[in-house]
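Lab notebook, bench 4. Still working through the backlog of constructs that have no structural model yet. Next entry is a single chain of 635 residues. Request: give me the C-alpha cells for it.
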Amino acid sequence: MTKRTLPLNFLLLGPLSIRLNTCEVHVSAPRQRVVMAALLFNANRVISVDRIAEYVWDGAPPPSAAATVRTYVMRLRQSLGEVASARILTRAPGYLLELGEHESDLGQFTAHRRRAAELAERGDLEGSSAELAEALALWREEPLADIPSQTLRDVEGRYLQELRLQTMELRFDTELALLRHAEVVPELVRLVRKHPLREALVGKLMLALFRSGRQSEALDLYRRTRVLLVEQLGTEPSADLREVHRRILSVHDRPRTPGPQEPPAPARAAAAPAPTPAAAWDRSCWPSPAQLPSVPLPLSARSGALARLQHFLTTGPMPAGVVATAVVTGRGGVGKSALALQVAHAVRGSSVHGQLYADLGGAARPLTARAVLPRFLADLGVPRDEIPEEASERESLYRSLTAGRRLLVVLDNASSTAQVRPLIPGSGGSRLLVTSRRRLADLDGAHTLQLGPLDEAGSLELLGGIVGPARVGAEPQAARTVLTVCGGLPLAIRIAGTRLLERPHWSIGYFARRLTEAPRLLDELHAGDLGVRPCLDADHAGLRRTAPAGVDPAEVFTALGAAGTSSVSAGRVAVMFGCSEEQAEEALDALVEANLLGAPAGGRYRLDALLRAYAHERAQAVAVRQHDHPYMRAG
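Model written out:
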C-alpha cells in the first residue's frame, strides 16, 4: 500500500514528531511537548486545563497552573506556525485539537485496524493480515520516550502498549488461520519471553509450535507458564489456555498442509482450540444480532445532540480496558429513547458485529442484568442450556464473548448504574449507549448528554409534522397555547397532535381551551397507550427518599400540588415544614433529580403546567386538607 503524503502529520507511535509538508517542526520546550502530547491523545475531544496541568506537573500542579498552561498553549501555537496552530481551538473548559484520521500515525493505525476487521468479516484473511502489518509498520521506537511526564506515560503509554499487543495478537490469529504457523513462531517466542504471563500470546505460541510438529515444546511451555502463574499470581491458567492444552494432548488440532493448488480455507480459522478475535469475525460461528427498534423521523431541533453523540461513538480509539459509553438523560417523555435509537441507527455501520438492545424498564418495573444477560448470551450464539446459572459466570462469559468485537449495546430506560454495569461489553471496539432519567454520575467514564425540552420552533416542527403545517399555520396562537401547556415535552406534543389528528372537526383553539380549562389536565393528554401521567408516575416512583431526620421530598411535592404554586424557594419550604433551609434544599434537589421540579433559577424552583397538574393530583390522592396543614399556605 502506498503511503499517503500529507501536508500535516503528527507522529505519536514513537518519539513525538510534527511534520508540515516535508519539514519537521521541533517543539523544544519539554512542558510544551507534554501539552502537545495531551492534545494529540485527546484529538477531536475537549481536554480540560486541569487535566493538562495534571500531566504537565505529574499530578502536583501549582496554584498558578491554569494560567501557565494557557501560556504554554500560546507558545505552542507560535512554535507550530499558522497551519498547525489553527487546529488548536479554545473550548471550555480547555482546548480541542482538530485532527483528521490520516493526519496522525495513530489515526492511520486505527484506520488500518478497522479495514482489517472489515476484510476479515468478508473472509479476506490475506487482506486483513496485510492491513494489520501496515498498521504495525507505523510504530517507531518507544512512544512517549521524549515526553517528560510520568503521569502521561502511565496513562497513554500503557494504552499504546496494550493497543500494539492486541494488534499483534490479531495478526497472529490471522496468520494461524492461514496455516502460517511456522512463520510466526520466532516472533511469538520473542514476545512470550517479554510477556510470559500474557496467556493469549502463550496460547498462540503453543498452537504454532504444535502445528509445526513441536508438540513436546508446546506442552513444556504450558507447564512453565502454569508454574509462573501459580508462583507469581497465585492462580491457575485461564479456561482458554487450558483448552489449548487439552486439545494438544488429545491431538485434536493436527494440522493438514494444503496442496499446491489448494489455498487455505478461511473457515479453518474456527478450528483453533481457543476462541480468538479472528474467530469472532467468523459469522458462521458468531451471530450478528440486529435488535434496534424503529424510530420516528428525527427533528431538526435535535440535530446538534444527534451529531454530538454520533461523533463521540464513532471517533477515535478509547484507552485500553475502557468502553466508550454515552448516557442520554432527562425527564420522562423528553425524547431520550428516540434520540438514542436515532443515533444507534446512524452508527450501525461502525458496529460490524451487531447491535444488542434491552429496555430495562425504568424505576417502576426495573429489569435486572440477571434477567437480561441470558437473552444477550443466547443472541451472541450461546446455546440456552449452556448459559451459566451463577450471575458472576454469566457476566464473565458475556465480557469474554464481546471482548475484541465491535458491537453496539443500547440499554434503554435504566434506573441505576447497578443495572448497567454487568451489561457493559468487554473491552475492544464496542460502544455502549444508555438512556436514563437519572444522571448515572457513578458510571465511570460515561459521556453524559442532558436532553432538555424542545424550544418553540422544535415544538412547532413536531406538531406540524403530525397534524400538518397548514393546520398549525391557520391557528398559530392557539397552537402556541397548546405547546405552552405541553412544556416542550415531545411525548405530550405527540399526544396532543394525535388527538387533533383523530378529530379533524376540532379546531386547535377548541383543544387549547380543553387543555387550559380541564379540571384534570393529564386526562386530556392521553391517547391510546400513550400518556404523560405514566411517565410522571415513573419519576415519582424513583424519587429518592431522605434520611429520617430530613424532609420527605414526596411530602414537599404533595404540598406544592395542594398549594397550586408554580415556584417555590428553599426558604419558603423551610417555613412550611419547620426545618432548616439546608434540609429544605436537600428535599427540593431530590425533586429536581427526579425530574419533578425545574432546576433553581434566581433561588426559586419552578413547576411547569404538567408538573403542577400532577402535583395537584398527588395532593388530591392523599386527601390533604388545606386548613389542617400550615404548609398549604405556600406561595
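Notes after review: Confidence is low (pLDDT under 50) at residues 1-6, 252-285, 624-628, 630-635. The longest helix spans residues 150-177. Flag for follow-up if needed.
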